[in-house]
């Protein structure tokens, strides 16, 4: 129970920091983490955690978080969302292993689902800090990739 309290405390501090001081991608990741935490709490109101079989509720949360983080990684003008997306995909591997009937002890299955989430708050804190450094150094920090024709470099091939 102490480890959960430590994680929640770290997560809350980082979320407030990212939401108040981060750029668009940092705030988007903070919102993804908030949505995950809320979905997890709502899930546990109705379904007790079980790790002896595939945990469909957590699988749904993990798929949604992985997709959201992958979209963030593809649209943000930052590098850090790529490792964040990988960290969101790791729990899916636990579900795949369990679905393939690989004999996974329930504690190992739970650990595989949860362990990567411990790395997300420090990554988000570092990303927010680096955003602030770029703002101080350059006066601005582009948040999103430009996909319009206007933002693409032009070529002189006419």
Description of the structure:
By secondary structure, this protein is mainly α. It has one domain. Helix content is 70%, strand content 0%. The chain has helices spanning 2-21, 24-46, 56-75, 81-99, 106-114, 120-138. It is elongated. It starts with a helix and ends in a 20-residue tail after the last helix.
Give a quick summary of the entry.
The chain contains 6 helices and no strands. It has 158 residues and is mainly α. It has one domain.
Strands, helices and their partners?
Blueprint (H helix, E strand, L loop, with lengths): L1 H20 L2 H23 L9 H20 L5 H19 L6 H9 L5 H19 L20
Helix pairs in contact: 1-2, 1-6, 2-3, 3-4, 4-5
Keywords: Membrane, Transmembrane, Transmembrane helix
Q: Largest sheet at a glance?
A: none
Radius of gyration: 18 Å
Q: Note poorly predicted spans.
A: 151-158
Average pLDDT number: 87
Keywords: Membrane, Transmembrane, Transmembrane helix
Transmembrane segments: 28-47, 59-80, 107-129
